[in-house]
Amino acid sequence: SLLGALTLAQQRFTGEGQGEGEDACRFITASFSEAGRPVDDALCAFSKSLQRDLVHVRCGHVSFCDPIEPAAAASILYAEAIAEQEPYAFVSYCDSRRWVSHCVEASVNPKAGDALLQASDVVLVTGGGRGITAQLILALAASVKPFLILVGSTDLDSESSHADEVRDTLKRLADLGCKTDYVQCDLSRPDTVREMMQSIAKRHPPVTGVIHGAGLLADSNIAEKRASDFADVVGVKSGSARLIEAALDLSALRFWVSMSSIAAFLGNAGQTDYAAASQDLVVQAYRLKALGVA
């Protein structure tokens, strides 16, 4: 588990157990699935960020996409752990081949998603009251006016800059002719997420689209990373997405868009939690796509 990896890394490489100066230090994680494709999971993103926190340790991750015998997996893990190649080993084994992911330039068609959103849609938007997600839905509402259910942690009755921003977003959406409902929810708590989804199911038609932009930052080096903060970051960004998915009627769901992060692919110092959660959203997107959700 992610928390298990956090605990192990802290025990081995920080405080009294730190391995600075040990050139042979290795931290290799692994995941096993039958997805049949080289899709790295959250543990891979965790290890990439851990590499940026622990520059004296060689970190890596091996994703096994196909069924494999334990002895064969152990042999591959050992070979990856002792290999001297650069960059560090973040690889997938699929169809008996070793795969390494690279960033490549890709063109984007800004008109490709125009037909996806419809005025009849009921769209659940997490983190939609503020920040980049708010800007996204305001742009969408300028041309298409679906019913938007905005979910956030901000108390609209409070006197704060966050509340002012959410109220402003709701007013601007109303001025555009878009109907909305705002739901306050602590997305770090599974019980409140489940209660929220039950309430939404009773009060609104089936959700046909999700824009998941909720996120939480608690950046700190692995040595100072608290398990409670780690759990909250992962819970808000990816844990809540899984709970929302589980509560929805997927036969009615036409699309799902999540705000991931480049940290999921490259790693980022102090963001073992955020990077892992962001990559978990990528894995979720592949799974939903396989189910026919755009």
In short:
This protein is of the alpha/beta class and 294 residues long.
Structural shape: globular
- The CA-CA distance between the termini, in Å, is 29 Å
Please tally the β strands and state the result. 9
Number of continuous helical runs: 9
Pick out the low-confidence regions: none
Going across the biggest sheet, name each strand in turn. Answer: 7-6-5-8-9
Task: Kindly name the structural category.
Answer: alpha/beta
Rounded Rg: 21 Å
What percent of the residues sit in helical stretches (DSSP H or I)?
40-55%
Order of helices and strands: HEHEHEEEHEHEHEHEHH
Task: Note the beta-strand portion.
Answer: 15-25%
**Can you give the mean pLDDT?**
90
* Oligomeric state of shown chains: single chain
Walk me through this protein's architecture.
The chain is α/β, with parallel strands linked by helices. The chain has helices spanning 2-13, 42-53, 70-82, 131-141, 161-175, 190-203, 227-247, 263-266, 272-290, and strands at residues 26-32, 58-64, 90-94, 97-99, 122-126, 147-152, 180-184, 209-212, 255-258. A five-stranded parallel beta sheet has the order 7-6-5-8-9, with helices on both faces. It has a four-stranded mixed beta sheet with strand order 1-2-3-4, sandwiched between helices. Strand 3 (90-94) and strand 4 (97-99) form a beta hairpin. The protein is globular and about 60 Å long. The chain starts with a helix and ends with a helix. The model has no long low-confidence stretch (mean pLDDT 90).
